[in-house]
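Forum > Structural Biology > Help requests

Title: Can anyone predict the 3D structure of Biopolymer transport protein ExbD/TolR?

Hi all, first post here. I have the sequence for Biopolymer transport protein ExbD/TolR but no way to get a structure on my laptop. I'd be grateful if someone could post the structure tokens.
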Amino acid sequence: MIQRRSKRRLMNEINVVPYIDVMLVLLIIFMITAPLIQPSQIELPEIGKSSAPPAEPLEVMIAANGNLTLRDRAGADKEQQVDRNQLVELIRARQAQNTDQPVVIAADKNVRYEEVIQVMDLLQQQQIRKIGLLTKSK
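Reply #1:
Sure, ran it for you. Structure tokens for Biopolymer transport protein ExbD/TolR below:
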């Protein structure tokens, strides 16, 4: 008896035909859909839109003894001692001229926080807008 052995050869080649088929299908899909895609247009903002620079804030300073001082940074740093009624009148007059006039409150570090809140509350009750607190950076 003759023994016959079946020898199987190892296949060391890759069948690339399926890959070529997939690539051709994708190529056809992209060729059909590419003309249908329209590029979008983006409207970018322009630089010249803002006509005026922001106004310098009015600074309400509260001293350690509780005295109020109003500093106008736009007016060459003029400072004037005011009471609470004068403070409201002066700020209203400035905001009547410029509606975007900001107001910042600066207090001595020894002033009780309650006094700062009272001044802020007074300004808010008198319909004064754009009130902020001024802090010292280290």
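Residues 38 and 49 are 30 Å apart (CA to CA). The chain has three helices and five strands.
Shout if anything looks off.
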